[in-house]
Structure formats: C-alpha cells, structure tokens
Amino acid sequence: MSDQTIIPAEVKSLFKPDGWNRTIRIGIVVPHADVGPEVEIQAMASDDITVHASRIFFSAMRAGGEMDEKIPHAPVESFVEAPYVDNAVESLCSSPLDAIGLAFTSSAYKHGPEGERALIERLKAVSRDMPIVSTCLSAERAFTKLESKKVAMINPAWFDADLVAQGADYFREAGFNVVHQSSCGIPSGQKYVTPEALYLWVEKAVRESGADTVFVGGNGQRSVGVINAVEKKLGVSMVTGNQLILWDSLRSIGADTVISGYGRLFD
C-alpha cells in the first residue's frame, strides 16, 4: 500500500489509536528505580507527546524508589561517568526519538556548570545529532527567559547540606542570585512528598527570602502538580526538574505544541 492510498472514512473509523499518532517522542535517562520523571513529564505532556526512559543503576536508590535518608555523594558523581550514561543515551538515540533529557539534578551540582556543558559535549559523540538537554542547563535557560532576579532553591529531603550548598554554588557560578537554599522539610522518601507538604514549604521559603522564582531540584521529587498553585497564590515563577526537561526538549526541536497549567515557563 503506497502513502498515496486513500482509505475510506468508514474503514478509518474501525481503528483505535495505537500511539503512532503522537508526533513528538522524548527520551529520558533516569535512575533505575525512579519512575517519577517519566510519570511527571507524561502528566504534563499534550496528546501528541510520548515519553521513553532508559535506566542506569543508582546505588543510593533501593527497589520501589526508596532513597537513602541522605544520599551519599560518590554515587551522585559516578552516575554520569563513562560508559554508563553514554550507553544509555546511545541506546535511546537508536530509537525514533526527537530529543533526550538527562533527568537528574544532583550530579550537575557536583561538577558545576562547566562540567555539565562538558558532559553534553561528550554525549554528542553517541547522540546521532539528537538534541540533549539536562535539568540544570535547562534551568539556566529558564531563569533567563523568566528574568529571574532572586532564586529560591528547594531540594529533596535526601540531599544533605553539602549537596544543597553545591547546588546554590552551581547557579551562583552561572550568574544567578540565589537568596534561599534548603532541603525541603518533609521526611526523606519519595512516598512522603505530597503537593500539600511541598506547597507549604515553598510558601515559607518565598515569604522569608522574597524570591521571585522557585527552583525545586531533584527529578525524583514529586513537584509538577504544585506549580500552578504556587504561581497563582504566591505570585512567583516556579520551575522543577521534570518541567524543565519537557520545556527544554520542546524548545530544542522548535515544537509549537501547547502545554497549559504547568507554569509561566510554557507561556
């Protein structure tokens, strides 16, 4: 059957959607036991987008998505070492995808803006010219777009004080004014992160710091459902790890798809 074959409407009506009607396909690299990034990105996505994950073993995460109370720093650094992330990206780029997102935050905190840029450059060797975005580099672009003057950083409870401080140093080195940095005051563990608990912590941080933009770090931290409430009630912009991956993936391919209800970033 050629592409020019005309199929009668009564025949077309017999078929159900099978996923191939979705025209934008985004691949993401995630820790092995974390479903949060793909769930959040798919929740925000319009009907023409699908999300596809490749997993890397992360020793600070146990079966069922349980995190260590405070994740050790060594696995955070080794997560992006060759050949592990390179193999995951190469595998994804063998699929008919449009863009790749590196859906983890803490590794960028450890090696800083230049280290993150170097990582992207290294991965170009296996990407087959597919655009690659990462949470912190995407946050830099987002802060510029949003004209952020005062940034409050709120990280998962499983980030210790040193990792939180390195995150603030990352964005200060990138040229942004970080006025608040903390781990959120929620018990450590993905199952304890609820929209209500996170909202209250964001509200407290904004009130005390006078921030105009809130960055919720950690792609494993449930957060996208809070964005609309924070922006409407507190009058600030809010960006999160997985929102950034979706936004910057779409930007990188020039997609004009509309994402609504998940922040000013998509306006």
Proper CATH architecture:
3-Layer(aba) Sandwich
State the CATH topology: Rossmann fold
Radius of gyration, CA atoms, in whole angstroms:
19 Å
Overall pLDDT: 92
Tally of individual helices: 10
Unreliable spans: none
What share of the residues does DSSP label as strand, in percent? Answer: 15-25%
Number of strands: 10
Task: Give the number of domains.
Answer: 1
Short overview:
The protein is an alpha/beta fold and 267 residues long. The protein contains ten helices and ten strands. It has a four-stranded parallel beta sheet with strand order 2-1-5-6, with helices on both faces. Strands 8-7-9-10 form a four-stranded parallel beta sheet, with helices on both faces.
Please give a structural write-up.
With 267 residues, the protein is of the alpha/beta class. The protein has a single domain (19-257), classed as Rossmann fold. The protein is built from ten helices and ten strands. It has helices spanning 9-12, 36-44, 73-78, 84-93, 106-123, 135-146, 161-173, 195-209, 227-234, 241-252, and strands spanning 24-31, 49-56, 61-62, 66-67, 99-102, 132-134, 151-155, 178-183, 213-216, 237-240. The chain has a four-stranded parallel beta sheet, with helices on both faces. A four-stranded parallel beta sheet has the order 8-7-9-10, sandwiched between helices. Strand 3 (61-62) and strand 4 form a beta hairpin. Helix 5 (106-123) packs across helix 7 (161-173). The mean pLDDT is 92.
